[in-house]
Give the backbone structure.
Amino acid sequence: MTKQKIKKEVKKHIPKDWLCELRILYRLSMETLNDIKRTGIVNLVIITTMAAILTIFGAFFRSAMTISSFAHELGNVLEISVYLKADADANLVKNRVNEIEHVENVKIIPKAKSWADLKREMKLPDLENPLPDTLHVKVDKPEHIDMVFSKIKSLNTVEDMSYAQQLAKKIQALNHVVNTITVLVVIILGILTITIINNTIQLVIQSRKDEIEIMRLMGVSNWYIRFPLLMQGAFYGFMGSIVAFIPLHFVENWLLKAHQFFMVPTPQYAQTTVTLTMFAMGILFGAGGSLLCIKKHLQV
């Protein structure tokens, strides 16, 4: 049995002293505060930079949610026009179309009504009604419109069909572009955040080099050395998120006005989702930058 396994087995049988654990946690928290104090005015620079990065991320993320909402709402007004054969029973075809997956609503437009509407708009000679019965089919989501179109087209009672295909494709392309840009922004900002935190923690390690070396010679736990540095990185991310929340509040108000002006519903829990994601990103990237620096500059 290796030394490490023996240590683990021994630790299992040692009763935990919770008061001692709390003292260690308090000591680690104080070490974190001392490290932040040592960094001095640089703390403000780091927090401000983190806030700027998280503001950019939050603004892109929230804007992406709004654009997706607009695209979804625009896609919902798209309808497939289905022109039936002369001998087709419109009600029977309607029932069959309703059974197709992702079909939300089907409305029958009788040929008599279409002809009467056309005659009101245009001066036409007294002819027999040449128009077919029409179905207006609404799909639940824009991305399903092609699939529903193909299934309806296969019905032998259908003469012809049409829908704004180019508009539907543009809506799907817009959603794809927005989502791709958001992912790229997250990656770029994540790299910037980790780089900034990495450089800061490196300075802290250099300033505490002798102290860390003494602790290692004394057999101090690796996590006792790592924890304050990880917490310092997480602290920068947390504080940056708090500062970033202020400009994001104005972005949120502006987007809400845009939703009200265009009468498009606001995405549910949008602000809460953006805020929680921003805080999670700030803390995780802050701690992650510290961890990478620790692994690079400390053999602990």
Q: What stands out?
A: The chain is about 70% helix and 10% strand. Residues 79-163 form a domain with the Alpha-Beta Plaits fold (CATH 3.30.70.3040). The first strand starts at residue 79 and ends at 84.
